[in-house]
C-alpha cells in the first residue's frame, strides 16, 4: 500500500510539471506575437505623424507669399535693382496671429527696413536712414556674392537649389566677416565667412520653425497709400525727403481706425505725424 501511494504522488507531480510547462510556452508565444503588433503600431504612428505635420506646414506655406516675393516687393518700393543690392536679410515672423516678413537692405546710400504682410504683401511699416560706411568694407577682400558662393560650396548645394535670405557684412573680433543665410526645402543654413581669406568661421544648420497660422490684415476702408501719407506729412512740414536723416512709417489700427504713424528727423529736430488712412487727414502732429 505504501508503494502504491508513493507511485500515485509521483505520477501527480509529473502531471503538474507538464501543465506548468504548457502554460509557460503559451505565455511566451503570446508575448512574441504581441511584440511585432506593438512595434508595427508604433511604426504606423511614426509614419502618420510626420505626414500630418507636413500637411499642416504645407497649408501654411501656401498661405504666405514667400521670402523671395517679399524681397522683390520691398525692392520695388524704392526701385532698387535686386542684382545690385548686396547687404540684405528677410525673415518670416508671427505676432498675435499675423504673419509678416521683415526685410532689411541697403540701396543707393540708404538703409531700409520693411515689414510686409505675409499673406498679401502689403507694406505694414518702413524705415529709411542714411547709410554710414565703415572701414570694414575697405578691409573686405570678398564681395557679398563671392562669400555666398563659398558658403554654398561648403554645404555642397547649388545656387539654383538654394533660396538666399541674408548676406550681411559686419565686424567680429576686429575682422570683417559675412553672415550668409539660405534655405533648401525645410532646412535653413547659416554660415559666417571671413571676408579676407574666405575661411568658415561658423556654420549651423537647423529645421525652419513652423508658422502655425496666418491671417491678412484688414484692408477695408483704406484709400490712402503709405507713400501718399508720407508726402502729406513732408509737405505739411515743408521738408524734402532727401533732407531727412531718418524716416519711419508704420500702419496701425487705433480705436478701430487705420492710421499711419510717421516719424522723421531733420537737423536734430524730430517730427511726428498721425494720418488717417481713409481720408488723409492729419490727426496729430508734433515737432521736438
Index terms:
3 domains, alpha+beta, Nuclear Transport Factor 2, Chain: A, single chain, 12-stranded antiparallel β-sheet, 288 residues, 36% strand, disordered N terminus
Question: How would you characterize this protein structure?
Answer:
Helix content is 35%, strand content 36%. By secondary structure, the chain is α+β, with helices and mostly antiparallel strands. It has three domains: 1-63; 67-207, Nuclear Transport Factor 2, Chain: A (Roll); 226-287, Nuclear Transport Factor 2, Chain: A (Roll). Strands 8-7-6-5-1-2-3-4-9-10-11-12 form a twelve-stranded antiparallel beta sheet.
Summarize this entry quickly:
A 12-stranded antiparallel β-sheet has the order 8-7-6-5-1-2-3-4-9-10-11-12. With 288 residues, the protein is of the alpha+beta class.
The CATH topology of the largest domain turns out to be Nuclear Transport Factor 2, Chain: A
Quickly count the helices. Answer: 5
Unreliable stretches (pLDDT < 50, length at least 5) are 1-13, 32-60
Order of helices and strands: HHEEEEHHEEEEHEEEE
Integer average pLDDT: 81
Helical residues, percent: 25-40%
Q: How big is the Rg?
A: 33 Å
Largest sheet: 12 strands, antiparallel
Structural class: alpha+beta
What is the class of the largest domain in the CATH system? Alpha Beta
- Roughly how many Å apart are the termini? 123 Å
* CATH architectural name of the largest domain: Roll
Strand order of the largest sheet: 8-7-6-5-1-2-3-4-9-10-11-12
Total beta-strand segments: 12
What's the structural domain tally? 3
Silhouette: globular
* Share of β-strand residues: 35-45%
Oligomer: single chain
Amino acid at each position: 500500500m505504501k508503494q502504491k501511494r508513493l507511485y500515485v504522488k509521483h505520477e501527480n507531480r509529473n502531471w503538474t510539471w507538464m501543465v506548468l510547462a504548457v502554460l509557460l510556452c503559451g505565455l511566451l508565444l503570446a508575448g512574441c506575437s504581441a511584440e511585432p503588433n506593438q512595434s508595427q503600431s508604433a511604426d504606423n504612428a511614426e509614419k502618420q505623424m510626420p505626414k500630418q505635420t507636413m500637411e499642416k506646414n504645407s497649408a501654411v506655406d501656401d498661405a504666405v507669399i514667400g521670402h523671395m516675393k517679399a524681397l522683390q516687393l520691398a525692392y520695388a518700393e524704392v526701385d532698387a535693382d535686386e542684382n545690385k543690392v548686396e547687404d540684405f536679410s528677410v525673415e518670416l515672423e508671427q505676432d498675435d496671429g499675423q504673419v509678416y516678413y521683415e526685410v532689411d537692405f541697403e540701396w543707393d546710400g540708404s538703409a531700409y527696413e520693411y515689414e510686409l504682410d505675409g499673406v498679401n504683401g502689403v507694406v505694414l511699416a518702413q524705415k529709411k536712414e542714411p547709410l554710414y560706411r565703415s572701414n570694414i568694407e575697405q578691409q573686405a577682400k570678398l564681395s557679398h556674392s563671392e562669400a555666398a558662393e563659398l558658403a554654398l560650396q561648403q554645404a555642397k548645394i547649388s545656387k539654383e537649389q538654394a533660396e538666399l535670405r541674408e548676406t550681411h557684412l559686419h565686424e567680429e573680433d576686429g575682422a570683417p566677416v559675412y553672415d550668409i543665410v539660405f534655405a533648401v526645402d525645410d532646412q535653413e543654413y547659416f554660415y559666417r565667412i571671413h571676408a579676407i581669406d574666405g575661411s568658415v568661421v561658423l556654420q549651423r544648420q537647423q529645421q525652419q520653425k513652423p508658422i502655425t497660422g496666418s491671417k491678412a490684415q484688414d484692408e477695408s476702408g483704406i484709400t490712402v497709400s503709405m507713400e501718399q501719407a508720407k508726402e502729406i506729412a513732408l509737405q505739411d512740414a515743408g521738408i524734402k525727403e532727401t533732407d531727412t536723416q531718418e524716416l519711419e512709417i508704420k500702419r496701425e489700427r487705433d480705436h478701430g481706425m487705420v492710421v499711419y504713424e510717421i516719424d522723421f528727423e531733420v537737423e536734430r529736430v524730430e517730427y511726428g505725424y498721425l494720418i488717417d488712412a481713409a481720408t488723409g487727414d492729419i490727426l496729430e502732429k508734433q515737432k521736438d
